[in-house]
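User: Let's play a game. I give you a shape written as tokens, and you guess the letters that built it. Ready? Here's round one.
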């Protein structure tokens, strides 16, 4: 790498400061086409050199292409970062460079290695490869002080650090040298590590869609031949409210034969989206991460840019062999990495071997008073009468604005629900009964159109996200359940019962606060007296929505929100809806985790409990609220059991002393609810601090006949939980009988 002179440093600092002052308009949107180099620079050569070797892995370096190979010694399988001659996307890193003359798509192979402007250095267990990318060799060989805004020039390094069973790849952007007044838009890292032209029957990609999905590679399905998952969801800075697949953890994985690896993005994760495809026109199946270094938004015929990320990108690859080449071991490796990076606590956040009954009550929505503090006390009394004592109560719609809360920082308890006095009485009751009262909050957003210091999109419009109050509306998920149960039972087609007293479906446009103001505002809120009325807080938006600004990049915004989540621990318990991983260091509960995938479930693209396998034993978690009046109620319960999740309900109260959820009267179902909770408690209380070590489909019964719809989840103490989604009694090969639509726990 060329030495950074003082003049170059001044140019770089000026460029960085100018990029954050406001949302800048991009003057040229023309894409400048680049010629591909000789395929020899994109194909593995025989000129390799060993970097380091241990009992598990051998790391080598291709001195012609400047790529790395990782050999799984146990299984005699080699992972390569480049592929065949017919694969144009075969490179280590690619990026888009926005200049005043247009947009250049550059990559390490065609625009550096082929030009002779790459070099490397080995030191102990590290390898650092330095690249200078350009459209011309003569430009790439210039000193940076000679580079003008008319040139195409990007210089950066990729550092590999090898250890016993892992490889850390760090793209060193912090000290990158770039054409003056230019910026990097997107960057893709090692897109073909784990790719192959030949997919075997048991090969798959692990995709962080929902709580995890397995994309089988020797199959094809037009709905899932290509998938794209945004880590932590789409950024409202892009002014896009369209739905997309989102990930709560920045992890993807590859399994081929008896070898596998998990890719854990530990730096720059908030900028990433995961792309995966089965064999396409290039002839390879591949999965990788692309990073939005600088967000760009189209408005009319113009493009605008946001804040540029100025730190490094880091991905940790954990390699697995034999029986450990599976998604539950990928989860274990991910959990270990999150603990090492202080994203999760080493000891976890579960304080005792018990499982709470998780209940949300809604105070006010759509200008309707739904559940007062007095009525909430009645609900708790009914549950206690059924033997349910350890209740974690999340009170939603309690503060100004109700379900669609107004600005938290000027809000108060709604007087018609009981006011502060009513909440205080409710809190005193929960304390004496050994329960917890959490107040639901929106710390980033407000339903008020007049929110002060509102966030803006890159083109200057108000930034928002859509909040759906879906009480009374749940789409029929029968089609998604087909992959789980292997049949369409008659009751899956039933229409839901006639809605009861209250059944709104309302969408709210929640305006976002400037991310730069959240820290100070929330710190002041934590000092207010409202927290004296509860045992803690529940975050509705902070675990779901992540956005940037023209001054603050998305990774920095992630860190701001993470710090606010940690701060709650000084005041009480924290629960988080959805559960983006960066909010969970101090959280004791994740509610409403999505166990369904965005892309259509099928035998080719199956949901798996990957995120639960990371979190179990660390933090309590639930799925979506159970609707006891839904024909699919039993299936929803079984999914919770299979995924190790807590029972969770969301209710409102009707003025005839009957509480209901989604319009279904539950006074005659309270006994059934209590039975399910107590059954789950008996099984899962001893497993509260255990981890999930295995999850599998039971393929055949005791007679050797093919099965579908039967699953087994194994925990670190050896307990196995069998779940039967079918309408028949199943006898497993181990002679374990499972009743129809039922579950069995076997302690080993």
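Assistant: Ready! My guess for every position:
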């Amino acid at each position: 790498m060329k030495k950074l002179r003082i003049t170059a440093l001044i140019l770089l600092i000026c460029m960085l400061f100018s990029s954050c002052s406001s949302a800048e308009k991009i003057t040229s949107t023309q894409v400048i086409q680049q010629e591909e180099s000789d395929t020899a620079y994109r194909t593995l050569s025989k000129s390799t050199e060993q970097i380091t070797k241990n009992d598990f892995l051998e790391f080598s370096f291709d001195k012609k292409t400047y790529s790395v190979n990782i050999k799984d010694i146990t299984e005699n399988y080699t992972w390569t970062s480049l592929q065949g001659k017919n694969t144009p996307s075969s490179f280590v890193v690619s990026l888009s460079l926005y200049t005043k003359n247009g947009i250049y798509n550059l990559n390490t192979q065609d625009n550096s290695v082929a030009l002779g402007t790459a070099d490397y250095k080995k030191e102990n267990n590290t390898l650092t490869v330095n690249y200078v990318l350009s459209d011309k060799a003569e430009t790439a060989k210039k000193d940076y002080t000679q580079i003008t805004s008319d040139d195409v020039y990007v210089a950066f390094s990729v550092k590999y650090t090898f250890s016993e069973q892992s490889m850390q790849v760090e793209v060193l952007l912090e000290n990158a040298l770039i054409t003056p007044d230019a910026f990097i838009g997107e960057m893709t890292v090692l897109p073909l590590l784990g790719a192959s032209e030949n997919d075997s029957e048991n090969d798959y990609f692990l995709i962080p869609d929902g709580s995890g999905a397995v994309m089988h590679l020797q199959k094809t399905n037009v709905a899932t031949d290509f998938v794209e998952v945004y880590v932590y969801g789409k950024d409202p800075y892009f002014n896009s409210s369209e739905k997309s697949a989102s990930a709560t953890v920045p992890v993807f994985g590859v399994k081929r034969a008896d070898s596998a690896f998990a890719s854990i993005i530990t730096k720059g994760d908030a900028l990433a989206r995961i792309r995966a495809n089965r064999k396409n026109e290039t002839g390879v199946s591949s999965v990788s991460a692309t990073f939005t270094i600088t967000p760009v938004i189209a408005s009319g015929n113009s493009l605008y840019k946001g804040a540029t990320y100025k730190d490094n990108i880091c991905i940790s690859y954990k390699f697995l062999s034999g029986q450990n080449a599976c998604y539950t071991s990928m989860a274990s490796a991910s959990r270990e990495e999150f603990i090492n990076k202080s994203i999760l606590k080493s000891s976890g956040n579960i304080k005792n071997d018990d499982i709470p009954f998780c209940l949300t009550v809604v105070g006010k929505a759509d200008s309707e008073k739904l559940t007062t503090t007095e009525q909430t006390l009645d609900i708790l009394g009914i549950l206690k009468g059924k033997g349910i004592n350890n209740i974690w109560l999340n009170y939603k719609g309690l503060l100004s604005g109700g379900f669609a809360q107004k600005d938290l920082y000027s809000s108060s308890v709604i007087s018609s629900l009981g006011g502060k006095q009513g909440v205080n009485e409710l809190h005193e009751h929960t304390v004496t009964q050994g329960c917890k009262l959490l107040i639901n909050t929106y710390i980033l957003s407000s339903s008020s159109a007049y929110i002060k210091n509102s966030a803006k999109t890159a083109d200057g419009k108000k930034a928002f996200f859509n909040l759906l109050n879906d009480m009374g509306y749940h789409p029929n998920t029968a089609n998604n359940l087909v992959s789980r149960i292997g049949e369409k039972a008659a009751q899956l087609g039933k229409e839901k019962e006639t809605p009861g007293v209250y059944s709104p479906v309302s969408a709210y446009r929640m305006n976002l606060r400037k991310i730069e103001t959240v820290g100070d505002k929330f710190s002041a809120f934590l000092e207010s007296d409202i927290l004296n009325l509860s045992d803690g807080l529940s975050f509705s938006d902070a675990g779901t929505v992540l956005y940037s600004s023209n001054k603050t990049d998305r990774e920095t915004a992630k860190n701001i929100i993470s710090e606010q989540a940690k701060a709650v621990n000084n005041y009480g318990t924290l629960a988080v809806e959805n559960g983006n991983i960066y909010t969970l260091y101090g959280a004791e509960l994740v509610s409403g985790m999505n166990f369904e995938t965005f892309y259509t479930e099928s035998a080719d693209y199956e949901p798996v409990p990957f995120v639960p396998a990371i979190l179990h034993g660390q933090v309590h978690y639930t799925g979506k609220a159970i609707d006891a009046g839904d024909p699919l109620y039993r299936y929803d319960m079984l999914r919770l059991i299979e995924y190790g999740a807590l029972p969770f309900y969301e209710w409102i109260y009707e003025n005839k002393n009957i509480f209901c959820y989604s319009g279904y009267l539950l006074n005659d179902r309270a006994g059934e609810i209590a039975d399910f909770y107590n059954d789950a408690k008996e099984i899962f209380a001893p497993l509260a601090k255990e981890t999930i070590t295995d999850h599998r489909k039971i393929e055949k019964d005791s007679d050797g006949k093919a099965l579908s719809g039967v699953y087994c989840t194994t925990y670190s103490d050896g307990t196995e939980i069998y779940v039967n989604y079918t309408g028949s009694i199943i006898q497993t090969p181990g002679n374990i009988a499972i009743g129809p639509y039922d579950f069995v726990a076997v302690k080993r």
